Fold these 2 entries.
Entry 1:
Amino acid sequence: MSELRQDIATKQWVIIAKERAKRPHQFIQRQERVAEPEYSPACPFCPGNESQTPPEAFAFRESGTAPNTPGWRVRVVPNKFAALSPGEQVIVTHPEIFTTINGIGGHEVIIESPIHNQTCATLPYEAVEEVIKAALARFRAFSSDSKCGFVAIFRNNGKGAGTSLIHPHSQIIATPIVPTHVRQEIEEARRFYDDRIQCVYCESLARELEADERIVLNTDGYVVLVPFAARMPYEMRILPKDHNPTFANALPDDIHEFAFVLKEALHLLYRAVDNPDYNLVMHNAPLRDSCQDYFHWHVEILPRLTTPAGFELGTGIYINTSVPEEIAQYLRGMCQS
Amino acid sequence: MSELRQDIATKQWVIIAKERAKRPHQFIQRQERVAEPEYSPACPFCPGNESQTPPEAFAFRESGTAPNTPGWRVRVVPNKFAALSPGEQVIVTHPEIFTTINGIGGHEVIIESPIHNQTCATLPYEAVEEVIKAALARFRAFSSDSKCGFVAIFRNNGKGAGTSLIHPHSQIIATPIVPTHVRQEIEEARRFYDDRIQCVYCESLARELEADERIVLNTDGYVVLVPFAARMPYEMRILPKDHNPTFANALPDDIHEFAFVLKEALHLLYRAVDNPDYNLVMHNAPLRDSCQDYFHWHVEILPRLTTPAGFELGTGIYINTSVPEEIAQYLRGMCQS
């Protein structure tokens, strides 16, 4: 019989379809892939094509090189097809029931490497660290804009995860409101705190380390685990051990170790299921609601090996056709190999 | 500049990316399709293969034909790979923070036609009406089981919408709990009611009919519209004009007209974007929480023409690259042709 599991933090339920569950290695999708070159003349993110993007907002580049020319290692540019853009004033309207806000905010692309066919999983740690530093710099820049309420940092890897460009990149979107989904996540964390005077993520981490069934990686400052109520095969969560509601407060040492852990987690996924499509999402507290005692930043890695369908869309309950403990064990074994 | 819109009922925000929006006809995906035959010997849902499914729970069949043999027009069987199954007792456990429930409930497939290559959009009204009647019969059967808390009725059309079998079918899953997502939807409806002593869906319907910008179809008892805060291109909602928290209460006349409206809406989508992949989800009140005054059953049609990515997964905010009013106008024009 299958099992329903509830995520203690979000109250979201998930169905672990144990009987129809595949073995960890059965999720490898041998899709026909076109081998990409290191440099693609048509790619707007490749060096030499800097004029094809809006002017850069941030870059790590070789000394002596000019903005918007080659010589960068990481480059942040506004999204050419921005979902939200900087502006003077947030304007809310609500004639009758039709509430709208003008599309104020920001939408930037972090080009993670000058090399066209790299991915975060195969970049050296030092390069991943610079990507994180660039993301943090832009996160902090948006944080100081009083028109922004929330900053989403995410990565779409592969076509099935919604990306259109192969060249390795992450994205940042700053929204004028706090998304309802985020509010709900925070509300659940606050409720847990009110009941127990304890952060739900700190408590989960302690119980997970104790159970030691779903831990993939355990370093001084971070834990990578397969969530107890994982929604999909190979879902992973990266949790910092120190309680902190937002990554915006990260210190250089935190960043250094986080780069190592992030790259390890992505590389494990890359090896385990042959560079699958996935989404990576950072969860941070909203900008003007510090959630100091009860929210705890973390990263979700969501592989797109299965397709959410009507049941998932209608109920929010995912049917996961893998057993979290088996996946964790498989990945842990891979760490040691 | 793009626009954020909030769904008054769910408080979910959506971004209408007006500037990057495609025109309605640009969503047609000319994918290579293998023409399916009317009968496929290998298909477990085709007549003659009844023994390949678990025994039927319900059927409309020609008089004189025996259960689990050909002669049926609509056939309901338990899902061979059921996510949830009937059982004696709901057992909840919560050692530490790890809450689970055994996989009690039900998971059935409604085989909508004996003809392998039909779809709900191309079936005659009478056939769609029998599909709805079969769904309703099973909905009512699950409703009388005190171990069930909620019944999800949905349809996955096409591979991109998560289906593995082409033969036209819908699904019913009965869950022992009320999904958190459903609770949130209901909580928002209750809050609106508490503020205004008015059903939020009744109010929306009145304002939508007044605005007349997003209405696709308007019959005596139903309205088909593109939601003001549609999350994806060609999203449609079917709303009954009479306030009723659940379809379980539907009378024969309601069903008759609903069959007409449902088939019309699906046929419009079929013609407009060339039989796209889509999910269809019914939204009904939970079984043991009547929500009498404030919830209002409805149907959501969610075409999978775009891919939700990290931003959607992390924030719940969809980036919709179409303008709801344009899509509605395009579909309305098609109604008259």
Note: Chain B touches chain A through 77 residues (CB under 8 Å).
Entry 2:
Amino acid sequence: MHRSTLREITIDCDTDDLEAAASFWSQALGRRKIRSEGPGSENYFQLEASPGDIEINVQRVAHPSRVHVDLETDDVEAEVQRLERLGARRVEQVRHWWVMEAPTGHRFCVVGHSGKQLERDGNVWE
Amino acid sequence: MHRSTLREITIDCDTDDLEAAASFWSQALGRRKIRSEGPGSENYFQLEASPGDIEINVQRVAHPSRVHVDLETDDVEAEVQRLERLGARRVEQVRHWWVMEAPTGHRFCVVGHSGKQLERDGNVWE
């Protein structure tokens, strides 16, 4: 048994000016931008979320700009295998997450996490 | 004064089999798929949302597959003008909404709506 949920969306920006990109989305969506911390943080801003709001990241990328969804799970391997059975495929493992491609062609991520919020609002998969 | 908020994301699918596309995302995200009603409904499924969840649409499109965000507002023209001042541009008007392009290159929509939920959780713009 494991859990997963749609926790966040990431706005991938092929840009030399991540701060300007994050500023646009911050003002457009009415959410304060917060510089991320930790490994790779120079490529991320988070947009502030109220409790229950979907989280939004603005990320600098080296591929064409797009928006992708991030699934949060307490068991990355089990969730990736569940999604493979639905027709998705593994693209690349990055630190503690997997980049996958849906049968519809969309790239998305499966990110490992555990915590009370996932226990409360995650879908439970056998 | 007008209001806006991020109400939904739309998974645009360049596909001949919208039902299969919606089924994948329904199962991946753990949300029941619901056939939309009204004009253009043959091109849409909604994924069921609990109160407070971001809404998700799966849409058949005739352009490359992508994910886009939809801003909901009680004054489309005022919101479009606010976003233009932030650097976005108008692309196309479709029924009661505008397709816009962010300075980061992402297409997104500004959709007209009014109601108690927007009064409760919308950002207020002067």
Note: The interface with chain A takes residues 4-6, 9, 11, 13-15, 20-21, 24-25, 27-30, 52-54, 56, 64-69, 71, 83, 86-88, 102-106, 123 of chain B (CB under 8 Å).
